Structures are given as structure tokens and as C-alpha cells.
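W.,

You were right to be curious about this one. When I first looked at the sequence I had no strong expectations either way, so I just let the prediction run and decided to look at it fresh. Below is the sequence, 248 residues in total, followed by the output.
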Amino acid sequence: MAGVVWPSLALAAVKLSTPRQKPAGRDILAAQEGKIMFNIRPALLFCAASALLAGCKTNEEMMARYEEENLALRGELTMKDDAISSLEGQLMNCESMSADLEEQLASASFTPGEDGLDPFGGLAGVTTEYEAGGVVTANVEGDFLFSSGRSTLKTSAKSSLNGVADQLKGEFAGQTIRIVGHTDTDPIKKSGHKSNHHLGFERAYAVMKYLVSRGVPESSIEVCSYGPNDPKSSKSTSRRVEISVVTD
């Protein structure tokens, strides 16, 4: 029995002695691709992470720059708001000062004859008026100076005109003098004057000639007439001759 070889055992021996076959080409390629993919994936993940980190860093820098610019703009806005507030405060101060000055000016309005400051105080038929621009006016009643519709001075008026002339030659020497004739609104009917404008001028001219006769320089005097165009509250007060001195 020792020389007999069983078929099954022979077959097993054949299988065991048969050398191992090499993998097919497709299997080798697949294996290599798997290795390559295994090596690429970590690299891709690293690149993605690097890009993400770089992007985050860029965003942080942009946010920091925007925040810095925002702070600078806020600072400029605050400065402008402060400047506006300062200007508003100055404007309020100016308005307050203006109101105070107006109040002081109103309270300091001149009363003729007070403390002897009225240059034409005490003259019959004459009142003193002060106007803006340094104008001082001796307002002489028309009925005190002239008879109705006439332009010839009354003798009784000359005493007051003498006092006016003394002030014009003294305190107001060298100043410009403006003499203006005024009338009421009643039309001229009986007198020889063509109109109230003519009558107003003739009366102002008569006053001017008298003041010149008292030593007031004629070259410093201007004469004009408003006629009925600047009436007062009544006819009697509308009839007047204003002798104004321009002090400024």
C-alpha cells in the first residue's frame, strides 16, 4: 500500500505545488489609484484649511480697517457737532447782547430839557428830536413862525431863532445843517403860493436867510420842502420847519 498514490492526495499536492498567480493589471491600477487618492485627500484638506485660515485673516484685517475708519468718521462727526454747538452758542450770545443794547438804547432815549442837555431847550415854539445817525433836529412850530398861508417870519419868532443860531454857531459849528419846510394837507386857495410844496420851501428859505443874518454860514445849509408829504398827527403839528444838524 505504500506504493499506491491516491488521486485526491495527488490533486492536493498539485494545488499546493502550483505557484501563486500575479494580480491582473486592472487590480494593480486600482490599487495604485487608491494609494494616490489616499495621498491626495490630506493635501486637499490642508489646502482647504489653509485657504480658510487665510480668508479669515483677510476678513479680520478688513473688519479692523473698517472699524478704524468708522472711529475716525465718528471723531470727525463729533468735532463738527461740537463746532455747530459752539456757533449756536455764539449766535445766542450775540442775540442776547443785541437785545440788551436795544433795551439800553431805549432806556437812554433823550428827554428834551432834561439835565440841561437839550441844546434847544427853553426856546419858545422849539422842541428837540434825536434821530438815528447822529441827527439832532430843532422842530419849530409853523404857526409860531408864520401866519396862515404866509412865508414871512413873525417878529415874535425871531427870539427863538436867535437861540437856534447861537447853538448852530457854537456847539454845532462846522456841521451840515438841513432846513426842511412842512405844511398840512389842505390845498392852497388864497395865498399866492402855487402849492404846499412851494409854501414849504419859501418858509424854509425864510428861516435860512434869518439864520445866515445871525452869522450861520450859508455854505453849511441845505434847504428843501416836503410840503404835505410828511404830516404829523394833526394839521397844526404838521405845519413846521425842521432845522436838523447832522453830527456824524
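Here's what jumped out at me. Residues 27-109 form one domain. And, maybe more interesting for your project: The radius of gyration is 58 Å.

Coffee later to discuss?

I.
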